[in-house]
Amino acid sequence: MILVLRALGVGDLATAVPALRGLRAGFPGRELVLAAPAWLAPLVDLVGAVDRVLPTDGLAGRPAWPVPPPEVAVNLHGRGPRSHRMLAATRPDRLLAFACPDAGLPDGPAWDDGEHEVRRWCRLLHWYDLPADPADLALRRPPAAGFPAGATVLHPGSKSPAKRWPAERFAALARALTARGHRVVLTGSADERELARRIAREAGLPSDAVLAGRTDLAALAALVADARLVVSGDTGVAHLATGYGIASVVLFGPVPPAHWGPPADRPRHRVLGVAHRVQLDRDWAGGDATHPRLAAILVDEVLAAVDEAERAVRVSGAVTA
Prior knowledge:
Blueprint: E1 2-5, H1 10-15, H2 17-26, E2 32-36, H3 41-47, E3 52-55, E4 72-75, H4 82-88, E5 94-96, H5 117-127, E6 152-155, H6 167-179, E7 184-186, H7 193-203, H8 217-225, E8 229-233, H9 236-244, E9 248-251, H10 257-260, E10 269-272, H11 278-283, H12 292-295, H13 299-320
Parallel strand pairs: 1-2, 1-4, 2-3, 4-5, 6-7, 6-8, 8-9, 9-10
């Protein structure tokens, strides 16, 4: 058995897809078990490399994993020491992880804070002579979920308040896109439903445009897979758009796109974010405030990026044809 730890969220799972597939290719015939939150199981099924999910919520406590000692344990969660020790407690024959002397692992590659999340985990596998292609991000298509195909998905929420573009700008964007002929829908968690309703009211959208709280993870993936366009902050939905090759505009701040953005060589995915400015960072009040680098992005800039992303789709379609 190959035991892999990645007990995080949607974007974290999506950025680990190339590494998971590399492990599948590197250990053919072995059962590949992913320690991850149970609610991610529908998305794990779309990766196509994992045999089963071992429900694990973060690093809180030390889970009594009901598994025999694995042949190989792989830390795709972090640099250690807690995550290293959780895996070491399963008594694997081998532990593949970044070097962490504090956890008793002096060997392994060094951690690089400035590395893109996808390339980080591929580099870890390469260190151990295992394959991993950073470009291998495509997800399997999920079954249809009954939502309209060709919708433009606006996802205004985020777990981090700093990553939320102002609601009034999402409303202005929704109005402008509707005027251009887009069928706009608003997604989010149940906790973000009131935010989506507010944006819908300000944008003049019908009530059925609010899908926040109405989609489980599988339905959200199906909606994105059949979408015309996705506009979101730096969150899991943006990674779904990348996984399905759907035109997208991703609004970044405070984390730079060089760490979490879509591949730079795919023009149908556009990123916006003010370059690092010390004064903007100093002006940030923290708490529930939008980060200044994200707040500096204007509606007209997003609309221009939408044009660029959709133009890239038309060009790639023409080339394919």
